[in-house]
Amino acid sequence: MPTLIQDACGGITGTTQGNVLSVVCTAGLPKPNITSNNSDPVENVDSVVITCGPQTQSTSYLWSVNNKSLPASTRLELSLDNRTLTIRRVTRNDTGPYECETRNPVSAGHSDPFTLNVLYGPDAPTISPSDSYYRSGANLSLSCHAASNPPAQYSWFINGRPQPFTQELFIPNITANDSGSYACLAYNS
């Protein structure tokens, strides 16, 4: 019997008291892994639960994000055993990467990094350069940008008329006929 315990444990500690032997078996830990109930959450809408596995006895669970300890936040909630981390109403700043560490008296293990793909935007688009006046004969080159995940697609409107679907708008050798209102629309799916 002691051989079976030895083989299963890899290391044994024991104490004797009279004719009773108490044996404590602590096994080495497998490499932890992180699972999520939602890998593609929507910003300010979804909450995400990430779990460090496997669940083993006498194990401590520690979390880090961006290679730092978890920050104090009312949106982050750990389960009583620290195995599960809930992120309430995710933001684009919650992408990670997250890592979990498991520890027991015999060993420790680190998970591979886990990154959330937080979907957001597009934010309000900006047009650059922001100049309003151009000389006749100049080339007009405008760029539209909006932070977004997935990346935004763009369309332009000149005086309300739709233009090609592109992030950059270029009009060579402008004239007075090119005067008007230029607007950019950003969208994603």
Explain what this protein looks like in three dimensions.
This protein is mostly beta strands and 189 residues long. The chain folds into two domains: 30-110, Immunoglobulins (Immunoglobulin-like, Sandwich), CATH 2.60.40.10; 126-187, Sandwich (Immunoglobulin-like). It is built from one helix and 16 strands. A four-stranded antiparallel sheet has the order 3-4-8-7, with no helix packed on it. A hairpin with a 2-residue loop joins strand 13 (153-158) and strand 14. The N and C termini lie far apart (62 Å). This is Carcinoembryonic antigen-related cell adhesion molecule 8-like. Pfam families: Ig_2, Ig_3. Keywords: Glycoprotein, Immunoglobulin domain, Signal.
How do the helices and strands line up, and which of them pair or pack?
Elements (H helix, E strand, L loop, with lengths): L1 H8 L2 E6 L2 E6 L7 E4 L11 E6 L6 E6 L2 E2 L6 E3 L5 E4 L10 E6 L4 E3 L15 E3 L11 E6 L7 E6 L2 E2 L5 E4 L10 E6 L2
Antiparallel strand pairs: 1-2, 3-4, 4-8, 5-6, 5-9, 7-8, 9-10, 11-12, 12-15, 13-14, 13-16
Protein name: Carcinoembryonic antigen-related cell adhesion molecule 8-like
Family: Belongs to the immunoglobulin superfamily. CEA family.
InterPro entries: CEA_cell_adhesion (IPR050831), Ig-like_dom (IPR007110), Ig-like_dom_sf (IPR036179), Ig-like_fold (IPR013783), Ig_sub (IPR003599), Ig_sub2 (IPR003598)
